[in-house]
Amino acid sequence: MRDNSFVGTGWSWPVGTDPTGAIAVVSGPDELEQAMYLVLATAPGERPMRPEFGCRLQEFVFAPANASTAALIAAEVVTSLVRWEPRVVVDDVAVTADPQEPSTLWIDVRYTVRSTNDRRNLVFPFYVIPEHPEHPAHPGGRP
After folding, report:
1. H or E element at residue 108
2. β partners of residue 100
3. H or E, element range at 26
4. What is the 3-state secondary structure (H, E, C) of 61-98?
5. Residue pLDDT, tens place only, 77-133
């Protein structure tokens, strides 16, 4: 069994209560995964006291679900996690389109926990708004 005490303990996300009515907390690998998820799910500017915190994924909501967008998203994810989650080494980020749902991109983050060399992965769904034939997206995928 690995010692995950370095990760610490934090409030669970989404914030909730435990059976005793206290704030629910998570620790170990679950806390680390939730911290990474929060980085990816937070747009810069959302947190008044930390305006730079987060990942610029929302800039790709209107982008086409293609290889170019996937590469840009992967680069943004790596940049954000390297900056905001120093407890991990990002080994690879793969962004793939869901064959059943064209508006869904799956972001697969493969990472290594620095202090234990434990290799893990986090799969994060990202949703784009597909281009409508009557209202094509502007160049660069932004309205």
Report:
1. strand 104-113
2. none
3. strand 25-27
4. CCCCCCHHHHHHHHHHHHHHHHHHCCCEEEEEEEEEEC
5. 999 999 999 999 999 999 999 999 888 999 999 999 998 999 999 999 999 987 655
